[in-house]
Structure formats: structure tokens, C-alpha cells
Amino acid sequence: LGSSLRGSLNKLQGKSRLSKEDVEEIVKEIQRSLLQADVEVALVMDLSKSIKKRALEEEPPGGTTARDHILKIVYEEMVELVGDSTEIPLEPQTIMLAGLQGSGKTTTAAKMAWWFSKKGLRPAVIQTDTFRPGAYDQAKQMCERAEVEFYGDPDEEDPVKIAREGMEATDDADVHIVDTAGRHALESDLIDEIEEIEEAVNPELNLLVLDAAIGQGAKKQAQEFDNSIGIGGVVITKLDGTAKGGGALTAVNETGSSISFLGTGETVQDIERFEPNGFISRLLGMGDLKQLSERVERAMAETQAEDEDWNPEDIMKGSFTLKDMKRQMDAMNKMGPLDQIMDMIPGLGGGLMDQLPDDAMDVTQNRMRSFEVIMDSMTESEMENPRSIGASQIRRISQGSGKDEETIRELLEQHKMMERTLKQFGSMGDGDMKRMMKKLENQGGGGGMGGMGG
Ligand code: GDP
Ligand code: MG
């Protein structure tokens, strides 16, 4: 959670009941996060009211702490706010994309086609944008990258005709994704045009594509597109940037629809199905748990593939060598900055993070790189037995790696500290550590405890 929200939640530790002030404080932090994420004020106020009411009126189930009680309510109300994912059946259908110029329609069309192709369907993209120079080439190239069928006609000026002919030309495809032109504003001829294309292709689903940075502009767009063609779902693009996409909730609310896909980058694979959990985490500033678990999984799979006999459980049994440390660092490098990862694991928020010595977290990417260079200059037995490394070895390693002796000592210190920390956690019994390990295991990587060391 956002650090201040986390702070407020942490204050509840040890409490079994919520006071009015506790609830006020937490709601205020949530409001701050959501408004910052561009969620409409009216929606934020509705949410706040429900959270306050429930938190103060509902009796926490026996044994529930005040903190867990409010977290559960916040989560449930947030799920209510963001809604479920738009149902996308894996069967033949036509989907039309609408939205303003630059919102990400063409990119999304290719991404969705790629997504459907991975699900075993045969998609085709039909490009009807005759307005924007280069639209044809852009769509064609992206579809080539996605290895999906594409139809467009750079010499034809009538988008409705392209749409009609495109449907015929791609008759053997299962899923037709119709990309449309979006001009810089909601001009009436754009609306007329999209209505005509709609008639020509008769889509099962119209998706409104919104840039995550849309903010309150979402309202008018959503209304107009909904009135003209009917919007069955929303796509939020560019979520890889700083914008959190809260404005899209307004569009969802206005159209009575739901979020279908998220765009998280410029390449065709950068598409995710909307999933409330991750999106909520993002809105609240906690990072995306789903993304984390996929990243952890990928990094662990890669690390383990490189080193088959690595068993993370050995580390828990107390042996933690420099080799283990290096593996942790490799995995970390593949996952991203440590504190961010720690932040993404729910339940870790307050407790565990606060118990770690500050500099356990202080292995910056640069330091990690130096450490790796140093480790490359160590012998196998030094890696296995860091305690055997004395002054003369340090001198030799320094010469071999081109790093100064001080950095090598830092590395050895860091290793010792990680080892100590691990032992400490190992003896924590059924505390946070076990919970964390279990979580990471479920997400596919017991070695995720690299999260602590690296
Ligand atoms: P259209 O005008 O609605 O068809 O929008 P485009 O698909 O042409 O996208 C406009 C710009 O946004 C292009 O430069 C895309 O590469 C970029 N873009 C689209 N989706 C994403 C995304 O999810 N992440 C990022 N970083 N860029 C995106
Ligand atoms: Mg386009």
C-alpha cells in the first residue's frame, strides 16, 4: 500500500477495535491515493461513505484484528468500485475499438489479436482508419509482429467500404477486430462514421480505448460513444507509465460496462486481461501483485533453469553461501528493485519491512553489478565458503575484478548480514516469514526470499 496508508494501517497493530478516528484516517489516505490516481471525486466519496459505514457498524468476525477487518472492507468496496473483468468468450466474434486519436486503439487491436491467437483462435485485424497518415502501415506492421492476419486498404478512402470488404476478405478468421479512426476530438463526423462502420461489421462487442492519463475527460467520451454505438467494455492503455487509469472508472460507471484489457507497453505482448486485484493494488499504490507473481515466476524459472540443483530450502536450513547470494541477486535483477517488490507482497507491508535493518535493503542496482563482477573473480571454494576469504584473497580478488578492496569487504559484510537476517527469519516460527514463503511458493518460486537479501 501507499506508504502513508500503510502507516495508518500499521497504527492499528495490536488493536482489536476500530475507533472513528482510525477509520477517518484510513479513509483519508485511501481518498488521497484514489484522487491522485484520477478517480472521479463522486466515486471516491461514495466509496468513502460505504467504507466508513461498514467499518463502524459491522462487527469484526471473532479473532479478526482491527487491521484485517478494515482491510477486508476496503478491498471488498474497492472490488465493487472497479468491477469485474468484461467477459470475453473464446469463440468467434467481432470486436470494434473506439476512442480518441492516440488513445492506443491500433496498438490494442494488434495486442488483442495476439492475445486471441495465443488462446488458439484465429484473429484478424481490420484497419478502417483512413484519416491518419501512416495508420495503415502502423497497423500492418504491428499485425506482422503479432503474426496475425491483417486487412487494410491504403488506396481506399471510404472506411465503411474497407470495413465491409475487410470482413469478407478475412472471412476465415474467427475473431474480427475492427480498428477505427479516432480524431483529436469528438467530432460529429467521427461519430457518424463509427456508427456506419458498426452497421457494416455488426460487432458483438464495442470497446472504448482510453489512455490511462485520461482523467475526467473520460466522462464525455464515454457518454458520446455509448450513446452512438453502445460501449460494452473499456480498455485502459499506457499503464506502464505513471498514470494509474482511475479516470477509466468514470467511463465504466457512465457506460454501465467493465474493464476488459490493460495495455502495459508498446509491443504486441504488452496486454493483460483486466483483473480487479492487481488494478486495486495499483490504484492504492501498492504495485500489481499479479505482475509481481509473474515476474517472480519468470525470474525464478530462469534462475533455476540456469542452475538445476539449486534448492531454496537449503537456505532455510541455514546454509547461505555467496553462490546463494549471487542467485538471489540474479533473480532480483530480473525482477526489479527490491523495495518495490517487497511492497507488492500484501501482508508484508508493515511488519516485515519494518523489522529489516535499513541497509538490508540498500543493495542498489549499481552495487549489485559491482558485487557480480567481484564474485566472478572468486574461486568456487571461496563462493562456497565466504568465511575462508582473508586479506590476501581480498587483495587477489580486487586485482582480478578491478574493484577496490573496500567494496569486496562490503560484499562480504552484505553476505553476513543477509545470512543473519535469514537465520532470524528462519527462527520466526509461524510468523511473517512462513507466510511470505508460502505466498511466494504459491506464486511459483520458493526462492522468492531473494526478496529479502538482494
Ligand atoms: P490510436 O491513435 O488510438 O490508434 O493509438 P495508437 O495505437 O496509434 O497509439 C498511440 C501511441 O501510444 C503509439 O505511440 C503507441 O505506441 C502508444 N501506446 C499504445 N498503447 C500503449 C501502451 O500500453 N503503453 C505505451 N507505453 N504506449 C502505448
Ligand atoms: Mg490508430
Automatic annotation (TrEMBL):
Every Signal recognition particle SRP54 helical bundle domain range: 1-82
Entry's Gene Ontology BP terms: SRP-dependent cotranslational protein targeting to membrane
Record's catalysed reaction(s): GTP + H2O = GDP + phosphate + H(+)
MF (Gene Ontology): 7S RNA binding; GTP binding; GTPase activity
Matching SUPFAM superfamilies: Domain of the SRP/SRP receptor G-proteins (SSF47364), P-loop containing nucleoside triphosphate hydrolases (SSF52540), Signal peptide-binding domain (SSF47446)
E.C. number(s) listed in UniProt: 3.6.5.4
Protein's UniProt keywords contain Transcription regulation: no
Binding site for GTP: 99-106, 179-183, 237-240
AAA+ ATPase domain: residues covered: 91-275
Keywords: Cytoplasm, GTP-binding, Hydrolase, Nucleotide-binding, Ribonucleoprotein, RNA-binding, Signal recognition particle
SRP54-type proteins GTP-binding domain residues: 92-285
Domain of life of the native organism: Archaea
Main localization of the protein described in the UniProt heading: cytoplasm
Cross-referenced CDD domains: SRP54_G
Compositionally biased intervals (Gly residues): 443-454
Subcellular locations according to the entry: Cytoplasm
Keyword Nucleotide-binding appears in the UniProt entry: yes
GO cellular component: signal recognition particle
Region (Disordered), start-end ranges: 442-454
Family under the similarity heading: Belongs to the GTP-binding SRP family. SRP54 subfamily.
Domain notes: Composed of three domains: the N-terminal N domain, which is responsible for interactions with the ribosome, the central G domain, which binds GTP, and the C-terminal M domain, which binds the RNA and the signal sequence of the RNC.
Subunit structure, as described in the record: Part of the signal recognition particle protein translocation system, which is composed of SRP and FtsY. Archaeal SRP consists of a 7S RNA molecule of 300 nucleotides and two protein subunits: SRP54 and SRP19.
Function: Involved in targeting and insertion of nascent membrane proteins into the cytoplasmic membrane. Binds to the hydrophobic signal sequence of the ribosome-nascent chain (RNC) as it emerges from the ribosomes. The SRP-RNC complex is then targeted to the cytoplasmic membrane where it interacts with the SRP receptor FtsY.
The protein's name: Signal recognition particle 54 kDa protein
Source organism (scientific name): Halogranum rubrum
